Amino acid sequence: MSIRKIGSSIKDTENLYAKTKPLVAASRVITILCAVTVLYPLVFIVLVSFKNNQEFYSNIWGFPEIWRWSNYSYAWVNGEIGKFALNSVIVSLSAVLASALLSALAGYALSKLHIPKAKSIIAILLGLNFVPSVAVFIPLYIQLINMHLNKTLLMLILPYMAWQIPFSIYIFKNFFDSIPAQLLDAARVDGCNEIRTFFSIILPLARPAVATVMVFNFINIWGEYIWASVASSSSTKIQTLPVGLLYFRGEYGIQWGPFAAAILIIIVPLMLIFIYLQRYFIRGLTAGAVKG
Amino acid sequence: MKPGKKKSIERRYMIIGFCFLIPALAAYLLFMGYPLYRTVALSITNWSGFGDPQNIGLVNYQSIFKDKTFLLALKNTIYFAVFSSIFSVLLGLLLAWLNMYMRRMEGQVFRTVMFAPSMIAPTITGLLFLFIFTEDVGMVNNILKAIGLSELTTAWLTNAMTVKQVVVIATVWRQFGLTLVLCYAGLQSIPNELIESARLDGASDGKVFSRILVPLIKPQIELSVMFTMLGGLRIYDSVVSLTGGGPARQTVVLPMWIIENAYTYSKFGYASAMCVVFIAVVLIFIVALRLVFRGENYEY
Predict the structure, then answer these.
(1) Within 10 Å of residue A3's Cβ, how many Cβ atoms?
(2) How many domains does chain A have?
(3) What is the mean pLDDT of each run of 10 residues along chain B (300 residues)?
(4) Which of A84, B33, B133, B270 could be disulfide-bonded to B156 (CB atoms 3.0-4.6 Å)?
(5) Between chains, do B121 and A109 touch, taking CB under 8 Å as contact?
(6) Class level of CATH domain B67-292
(7) Chain A contact present for B205, CB below 8 A
(8) How many Å lie between the alpha carbon of A11 and the closest alpha carbon of chain B?
């Protein structure tokens, strides 16, 4: 860590790029413009979430006259966002944890345990990763019903877990490739069995990869709409936030304020998780990218 | 250590390795591999949800290519994938390069801000842009009116001339943060000496960018294109929430038409055949991208 810090401070004082002054200025202007374009819609939604419909139409740009927190409780209670949120949390957490565990084990095996043709297996998995999931909906739905899983959240958890596996294995394998084999040998000489080596030595080292996989999969699963809408056609009990949100929009005509509040209830938790994990996330993602 | 002994140790680890690998592969095969095989099998039947599927050969495939909505959906899917990918990658690359000119903390803050939309679900992105482009209360029309360009206002989402561009803009807004972060990581790992020596030879910043930096980060650019283009082929959620496929099916995309055939008309066999064609399109894109980006990567 300290070496990294020293390295970065040297880089800072010798930023070669910063010598071209006009470009430094231009980069600021363009970047700020883009950042504002990105942020403004979000700020706009925050402001809308405190207005009622009448104020939304008469005073679209300004701050709300009174901050109507009641929009949030309206969305939570009348829009049943609370119920959808609970489903989403259960589904996302279980699918993310399960796929991370399975993929970490598989990625470790492919990287360090002498599996023959490991390279080809990874290439095939990465190709499969891009097969659109919609291609399996029809048989999958029937299969899950035959397994007596309809009306349970497993209908969502199991497929979500499985679909994230190829890309997660890819990230893990790239990361494990960068761990020196001597480290493993040392642990093995100390008499650790393979499972203990994995959980007590390998996994803690792989924290950036774990964070990357978890954030990436969480983003995908938390917002997944298409399978969630197909799977929950058999039961409204298993609707998740994205499905519930579109339902909320249709059901009440658009109540812009509560609607915006509901959108924020979905976005904000994700932002907080990301800001907390971003240091690891970007490192893990790009470690895989550089060697990809 | 004798070679024979080493072999046997390797074999022991290989057995453990298979035990580690199999749960993941089994889960994947059960919920993706097997259903995928079933889809291919269903695609040559006329199954409509009841009774046993009857084999009708390639009839479904013949009708697919006479299906006007399918062809339009295919065209739209490719349009959205290609254009949103090109603009996301160009914008991300440009901003990543400009990011190098900033101070460390400053750059970090801007990267975080611009990455934020990548976390927002496509459904939500669609809804956000609904706020922005709606005709009567939308942000864009209000801005145009405020700066005296009211003749430019239009019903962005129901005007067939503009609605596709709006979908592309929404997708680029959501994606360019990811390409920015990937390209930035590449640029950052390029050693200073390379740039320094090019400068000494009198290369301008633009030349350094186009002749040195871009070729060196080809792997990251390729990854960005893969992510955005192959992801773009699957675009569905944001179109549903933004346009619902309208006006008059102008923005219909493949998953939408597949779902409608399967769950509204119960044409499961026909929908499965469309799925198979969809997979073939994705494979063609993967091969094409590999060809475009083939050739050596430069080592440094």
Answers:
(1) 7
(2) 2
(3) 68 86 94 93 87 84 92 95 96 92 84 86 86 80 81 81 92 92 86 84 84 88 90 89 85 93 90 94 92 76
(4) B133
(5) no
(6) mainly alpha
(7) yes
(8) 9
Domain annotation covers residue A38: yes
Q: What is the mean pLDDT of chain B?
A: 87
Task: Compare CB distances from A162 to B18, B30, B127 and report the shortest one's residue.
Answer: B30
Which B residues in the span 232-251 are in contact with A, Cβ-Cβ below 8 Å?
233-234, 236-237, 240-241
Cα gap A152→A234, rounded to integer Å: 10
Q: Which residues of B touch A260 (CB under 8 A)?
A: 131
Do B127 and A55 contact (CB within 8 A), yes or no?
no
Distance CA B277, CA B256 (A): 14
Task: State pLDDT tens for residues A255-282.
Answer: 788 888 888 888 887 888 777 777 676 6
Residues of chain B with C-beta less than 8 angstroms from the C-beta of A169: 24
Q: State the residue range of the domain holding A66.
A: 16-70
Q: Which amino acid is at A274?
A: F
Q: Give the type of residue at B56.
A: I
Is A106's CB within 8 Å of B131's CB?
no
Predicted confidence at residue A96, as pLDDT, reads 95
B116–A132: do the CB atoms touch at under 8 Å? no
Please state the separation of Cα B256 from the chain's center in Å. 16
pTM equals 0.86
Instruction: Write down the domain spans for chain B.
Output: 67-292
Please, what sign has the CA dihedral across residues A266, A271, A277, A280? positive
Nearest CA in chain B to A246: B241
Structure tokens at B65: 């290519």
- In this structure, the answer to whether residues A105 and A232 fall within a common structural domain is yes
Q: Strand, helix or coil at B45?
A: strand
